[in-house]
């Protein structure tokens, strides 16, 4: 989604590092697995541990958005064995026959993936044949309690004139439109042009109050106090609070997006069993815990959760309960026309002189 940006230089460094083979056994086996993942979305030591345990060399590349990843897989010029898209993009990949069914005999650690998250993933993979959940979370509001006196509970706070020049909004169309659509009581997956126009008008009205439309830059701005309130993914919250203890997170009362990022295997994968070995390894409880501690996005791995302390498990920003998830929606693929509609309206907002 949306999230977890990695500088190009670091991405290149990682690619060089892991194509060289960090594991002790990988050079001997000649086996490889080509991995395509979000930036900053795995503990690098986990990659080395996988290589050492399996003898499979990891060739690792990163992407910044689902929309960047999709055409790479669709074109097939660069063949990957295992990829980590988000829910709605997985739905699109399934519809366009871009994914292979997973042989779960090779993924016995699927037993540790939460039943509730597996149930949630049926929204985009109805039979759970093509994907294994990796992380999940919510989209909400992050705010600085030293700059904002009131308790934030609603998306409408992002339209509060008192915060003019201190508001950060995501520059991703689906995320950006979440706030006005939720306020208006419309589905986050609507493609009704009248409903979207209402949401667009709200965002145009809000634009003079907005400091910037950004993605990863939200982190530095909120930690430093150069902005007071922002859209934010729940997976960023623990790291941000380490940088600034005045930061608080809430899923607004109107509801929001509930996302699941999952591992999938492209239909043209050349090392499918190695991809399944990769997915299985990441679902070892101790590995899932190590990964969580690095990326801080909620893990659906129940074995890892059993190793965590109660304070962490009871933090709704990290592990939202049913009371929160029940008012949230998973994004669905909207088709080419729906995507174009969101993108066109976002460009109108971006380019508007208000």
Describe this structure in words.
By secondary structure, the chain is of the alpha/beta class. The chain has 16 helices and ten strands. Strands 4, 5, 6, 7, 8, 9 and 10 form a seven-stranded mixed sheet that branches. It has a three-stranded parallel sheet with strand order 2-1-3. Helix 3 links the parallel strand 1 (32-38) and strand 2 (57-63). Helix 7 crosses helix 8 (193-206), helix 7 packs across helix 16 (335-351) and helix 8 (193-206) packs parallel to helix 16. The protein is globular, with a radius of gyration of 20 Å.
Question: Which blocks of ≥5 consecutive residues have pLDDT under 50?
Answer: 1-27
Q: How many helical elements?
A: 16
Give the DSSP E fraction (strand runs of 2 or more residues). 15-25%
Q: C-alpha Rg, in Å?
A: 20 Å
Cα shape: globular
Task: Estimate the mean pLDDT confidence.
Answer: 91
Main pleated sheet: 7 strands, mixed
- Structural class label: alpha/beta
Kindly, what is the distance between the CA atoms of the first and last residues, rounded to a whole number of angstroms? 28 Å
Order of helices and strands: HHEHEHEHHEEHHEHEHEEHHHHHEH
Fraction of residues in helix: 40-55%
Number of strands: 10
Which terms would index this structure?
alpha/beta; 10 strands; 16 helices; disordered N terminus; single chain; three-stranded parallel sheet; seven-stranded mixed sheet
């Amino acid at each position: 989604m949306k999230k977890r940006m990695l500088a190009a230089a670091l991405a290149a460094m990682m690619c060089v590092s892991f194509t060289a083979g960090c594991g002790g056994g990988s050079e001997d086996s000649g086996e490889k697995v080509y991995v395509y993942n979000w930036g900053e979305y795995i503990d690098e030591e986990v990659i080395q541990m996988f290589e050492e345990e399996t003898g499979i060399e990891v060739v690792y590349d990163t992407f910044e958005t689902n929309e960047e990843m999709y055409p790479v897989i669709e074109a097939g010029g660069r063949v990957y064995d295992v990829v980590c898209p988000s829910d709605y993009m997985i739905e699109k990949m399934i519809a366009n026959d871009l994914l292979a069914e997973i042989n779960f005999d090779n993924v016995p650690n699927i037993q540790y993936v939460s039943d509730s998250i597996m149930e949630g993933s049926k929204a985009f993979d109805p039979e759970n044949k093509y994907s294994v959940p990796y992380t999940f979370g919510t989209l909400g509001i992050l705010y600085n309690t030293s700059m904002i006196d009131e308790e934030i509970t609603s998306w409408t706070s992002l339209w509060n004139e008192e915060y003019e020049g201190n508001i950060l909004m995501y520059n991703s169309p689906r995320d950006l439109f979440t706030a006005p659509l939720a306020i208006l009581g419309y589905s986050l997956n609507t493609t009704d042009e009248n409903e979207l126009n209402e949401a667009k008008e709200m965002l145009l009205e809000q634009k003079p109050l907005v400091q910037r439309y950004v993605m990863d830059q939200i982190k530095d701005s909120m930690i430093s106090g150069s902005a007071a309130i922002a859209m934010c993914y729940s997976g960023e919250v623990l790291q941000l609070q380490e940088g600034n203890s005045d930061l608080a997170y809430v899923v607004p009362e109107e509801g929001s997006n509930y996302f699941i990022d999952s591992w999938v295997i492209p239909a043209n994968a050349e090392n499918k069993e190695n991809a399944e070995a990769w997915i299985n390894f990441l679902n070892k409880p101790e590995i899932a815990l190590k990964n969580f501690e690095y990326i801080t996005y909620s893990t659906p791995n129940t074995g890892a959760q059993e190793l965590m302390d109660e304070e962490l498990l009871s933090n709704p920003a990290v592990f939202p309960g049913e009371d929160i998830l029940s008012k949230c929606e998973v994004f669905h693929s909207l088709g080419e026309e729906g995507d174009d509609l969101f993108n066109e309206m976002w460009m109108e907002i971006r380019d508007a002189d208000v």
